[in-house]
Structures are given as C-alpha cells and as structure tokens.
Amino acid sequence: xxxxxxxxxxxxxxxxxxxxxxxxxxxxxxxxxxxxxxxxxxxxxxxxxxxxxxxxxxxxxxxxxxxxxxxxxxxxxxxxxxxxxxxxxxxxxxxxxxxxxxxxxxxxxxxxxxxxxxxxxxxxxxxxxxx
Length: 131
Fold this sequence. Notes:
Elements: E1 2-3, E2 7-13, H1 22-42, E3 47-48, E4 51-53, H2 56-64, H3 66-72, E5 84-90, E6 94-95, E7 98-101, H4 107-110
Parallel strand pairs: 1-7
Antiparallel strand pairs: 2-4, 2-5, 3-4, 6-7
C-alpha cells in the first residue's frame, strides 16, 4: 500500500488577454510554468501540474516570493483581472495503481490545513498580491 499524506492542491485559472494570440498565451504559460516551478520547488512544492504543497505557509511563501511576483506582473498576455485561484486539500485513495492506506482521522484534524498553518493561512498573502 502507498503511504497517506494530506496535501493542499492549488489550482489557478488563467485567461488570455483579448489582444493576445493563442500562440503568445501558450508560449507565456509554458515559459511561466518552467520558471514558476523552480520557485515552487524552492518553497517545498511537491508537484507542479497544479501546485501541491504541505501547508498554507508553503503556499504563501510561493505567492509572495519576489521572483514569483516578477513572473505575474507587467506586460504579460494573461488577464489578471479574470484569473483566480482555488485551494483545498486532496486525499488520494489510489495512486500509481496502488491502494493508499488512508487512516480514519477525526474531522477536526483532517480538515486542518497543515501542522504549522493557521486555519486558512492566507493572512500572510497581502491583499492585491498577484497569483
């Protein structure tokens, strides 16, 4: 059996600016993904297709990292006005064809978002931060 680990999955929804071509947006997203994954790795991200982290503190560290902020501001072919991010924990019951031994943890412990995190942990991300 695989080993149980509770992680947070961050999903960002990106939208192309009306005046950008599909090619420009695709190239931007690929370049952004390559650069962002280095920053996300530095702050403990586990996987980047969407971003999986262990705590909201890790998430806040990524979003507020000056190098990450440099990737999401300025003249980019993405509409930050439409972009949004969701975050929630993900429990995996089957991975790589193997059953994961998911323990029966009480709800109040299972729904906490990381040992070192506050209940939501987002207070570390200043209002208006680009993600």
